[in-house]
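Colleagues,

For the teaching module next term, I've prepared a clean inverse folding example: a structure given as tokens, and then the sequence designed for it. I'd like students to try predicting residues themselves before seeing the answer, so please don't circulate the second half yet.
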């Protein structure tokens, strides 16, 4: 089959993927948009009169009165989310999704709370303040912000995610690190989410809302109370940015919270420091769901317990080990991209990232930044018109010396502020006319490894990357 379909969080959503992975041939770039069009055609063929599939990150009036058809009313005292706005009927009926919703709320000790700053127009009240019937919502809602109180406001959004299989664990770790730096850039390029709960916000993308929608941390874990019952102070939600690189330690400039017992066990088993740290960091989280029939596993032949934790750590990049007894290899998943209205736009973003992975490996490019600067870039990527107006930290020089990879170059480097500067996205992607320390034009770099392509394929790639 050429397509595959899976349930997603919202009862109005579907996850659509190619039926099988694309192969390594560059000709497969031409199949990306065609497969997306096929998926849209298959879905539209099943819909009724005057119904069409739309690919948008979020429905602008999600959470407004009557946003479902038929209309369902929220039940704040009895629903799994206790939301004032999001009825249970808008959640997929598979028990996984309602269980996740309930368990996140119960573990946290309160409803989730997201506040997106309101866009201030000429007639926007100042301050913009909403009144709610319960004290919890009144306290959680911020003035001049759009308040949301349910997992559905985040996990009820859509996005574009791309998984790459590497030829080895070393290559997968390198791609994971390099693409981590690119996540804020693509988030800003793809930003398509300016409206929440019917209000125009002063943000352009989904990131902070979806991070807050699954934030199951307790008051102690969030740092709002001293640690007494809980084990860790955790600075980020389960959905958030990458906390540490996997191929080089040099630019990990933030503390990585980790389960010391997990880390010690992995080290004793011969796993290196960086990979042990990454896994031990994942396991600071509690499982959110567990089916009774899967409690006892043959761990030599099943990775279900690991995937139970891995699949509910929703980071901007995901490092995916091979499943047991499977031909599938080491993979990395690129996860920040907002969804676009057309198949061409979505395919263009996918091809952009895939071309970048090929270029990173072919030309030994080095994008390493301090991980704290990547976090700062993500915060900037959320701002309104970030693709035009924000500047992002990026390396001045992206080429490695002969015989080096980005990881070996980083291991030998002494990180310095002189290695990077703030640039707008136009400069990062297209370069500048002059300047001895500016990075090479990424679009031109794309075509260097593929100079022998036939003219038709080269034209297709140029169409995606340059819009020609």
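(Answer key — instructors only)
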């Amino acid at each position: 089959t050429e397509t595959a379909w899976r349930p997603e969080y919202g009862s109005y959503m579907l996850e659509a993927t190619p039926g099988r992975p694309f192969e390594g041939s560059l000709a497969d770039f031409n199949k990306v948009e065609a497969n997306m069009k096929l998926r849209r055609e298959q879905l539209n063929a099943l819909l009724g009169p005057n119904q069409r599939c739309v690919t948008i990150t979020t429905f602008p009036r999600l959470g407004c009165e009557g946003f479902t058809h038929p209309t369902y009313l929220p039940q704040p005292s009895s629903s799994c989310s206790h939301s004032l706005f999001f009825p249970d009927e808008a959640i997929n009926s598979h028990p996984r999704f309602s269980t996740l919703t309930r368990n996140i709320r119960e573990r946290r000790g309160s409803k989730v709370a997201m506040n997106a700053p309101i866009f201030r127009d000429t007639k926007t009240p100042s301050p913009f303040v909403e009144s709610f019937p319960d004290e919890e919502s009144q306290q959680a809602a911020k003035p001049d912000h759009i308040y949301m109180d349910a997992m559905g406001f985040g996990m009820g959004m859509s996005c574009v995610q791309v998984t790459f299989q590497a030829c080895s664990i070393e290559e997968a770790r390198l791609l994971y690190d390099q693409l981590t730096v690119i996540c804020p850039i693509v988030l800003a390029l793809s930003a398509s989410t300016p409206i929440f709960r019917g209000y125009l916000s002063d943000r352009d993308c989904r990131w902070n809302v979806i991070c807050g929608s699954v934030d199951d941390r307790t008051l102690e874990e969030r740092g709002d109370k001293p640690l007494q019952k809980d084990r860790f102070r955790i600075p980020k939600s389960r959905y958030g940015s990458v906390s540490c690189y996997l191929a080089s330690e040099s630019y990990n400039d933030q503390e990585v919270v980790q389960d010391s017992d997990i880390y010690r066990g992995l080290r004793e088993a011969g796993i290196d420091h960086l990979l042990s740290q990454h896994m031990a960091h994942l396991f600071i989280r509690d499982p959110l769901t567990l089916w009774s029939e899967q409690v006892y596993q043959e761990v030599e032949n099943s990775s279900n317990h690991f995937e139970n934790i891995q699949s509910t750590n929703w980071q901007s990049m995901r490092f995916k080990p091979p499943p047991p007894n499977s031909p599938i290899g080491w993979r990395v998943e690129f996860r920040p991209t907002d969804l676009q209205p057309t198949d061409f736009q979505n395919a263009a973003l996918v091809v952009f990232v895939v071309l970048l992975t090929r270029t990173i490996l072919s030309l030994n490019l080095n994008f390493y930044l301090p991980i704290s600067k990547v976090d700062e870039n993500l915060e900037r990527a959320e701002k309104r018109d970030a693709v035009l107006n924000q500047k992002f930290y990026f390396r001045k020089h992206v080429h490695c010396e002969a015989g080096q990879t980005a990881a070996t170059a980083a291991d030998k480097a002494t990180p310095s502020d002189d290695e990077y500067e703030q640039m707008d996205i136009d400069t990062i992607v297209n370069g500048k006319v002059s300047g001895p320390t500016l990075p090479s034009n990424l679009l031109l770099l794309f075509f260097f490894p593929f100079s022998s392509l036939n003219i038709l394929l080269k034209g297709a790639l140029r169409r995606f990357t340059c819009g020609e």
